[in-house]
TrEMBL record:
GO molecular function: fatty acyl-CoA hydrolase activity
Residues annotated as domain Thioesterase: 57-142
Superkingdom, taxonomy of origin: Bacteria
Pfam families (UniProt xref): 4HBT (PF03061)
Protein name: Thioesterase
Organism this protein belongs to: Tepidimonas fonticaldi
Family the UniProt entry places it in: Belongs to the thioesterase PaaI family.
Keywords, comma-separated and alphabetical: Hydrolase
CDD domains, alphabetized: PaaI_thioesterase (cd03443)
PANTHER family recorded: ACYL-COENZYME A THIOESTERASE 13, THIOESTERASE SUPERFAMILY MEMBER-RELATED
Length: 155
C-alpha cells in the first residue's frame, strides 16, 4: 500500500481543530509537529501553569495524561482521513465530530522534567466503530517518560 499524502487543506484543518478549536489542547500548548496516516507527533513546551503543585520543576501527571489522550485522538483523525481519501478534505474533517475517548490507560515511567516534551501516537486498529491506539510521552532527548493506550469511538 502506497503512503498517503494528505492535502495541505486537510492538514491545516486538522491543525486548526486540534490546536485551536479543542480549547483544552490550546491550554496545554499542544502543537502538531508531524501528521501522517500511520503516526502523529506533537510537542508541549514547559510553562509554569503545567507544573504539578508540589513538584515545581516537573510537568503535572494530568497534563501528561491529557496530552496522550489528545494524541490518541489525533492519530485516529489521521487514520480516518487516510481511510477516506476519496472524499474531499472538508468532508473528512467533518467525520471527527463524533470522535471520543472510551478507554484510556497511562503508565508513568519517569518524572516529566524538561523544557519541552514530544508526544507520539499511532493507531493499532481502526474498526468501523472503535479505534485502538498506542501513545508515548518523551523528553526531547528521546527518553520515554510515559506510555498510553486508548480506545476511541469513531462511529
Amino acid at each position: 500500500m502506497a503512503p498517503v499524502a494528505f492535502e495541505p487543506e486537510f492538514v491545516e484543518g486538522v491543525r486548526e481543530i486540534f490546536e485551536q478549536k479543542i480549547v483544552f489542547n490550546t491550554v496545554l500548548g499542544l502543537r502538531i509537529t508531524d501528521i501522517a496516516a500511520d503516526r502523529v507527533q506533537a510537542r508541549i513546551d514547559m510553562r509554569p501553569e503545567l507544573v504539578g503543585h508540589f513538584a515545581y520543576n516537573r510537568i503535572h501527571g494530568g497534563v501528561i495524561s491529557a496530552g496522550l489522550d489528545a494524541m490518541g485522538g489525533l492519530a485516529v483523525m489521521a487514520a480516518i482521513g487516510a481511510r477516506h481519501m476519496d472524499e474531499p478534505p472538508a468532508q473528512r474533517l467533518h467525520r471527527f465530530a463524533k470522535l471520543g475517548t472510551i478507554d484510556l490507560r497511562i503508565d508513568y515511567l519517569r518524572p516529566g522534567i524538561g523544557e519541552a516534551f514530544v508526544l507520539e501516537a499511532e493507531v493499532l486498529r481502526l474498526g468501523s466503530r472503535v479505534a485502538s491506539t498506542r501513545m508515548a510521552f518523551l523528553g526531547t532527548d528521546g527518553k520515554l517518560l510515559a506510555t498510553g493506550a486508548g480506545a476511541y469511538i469513531v462511529s
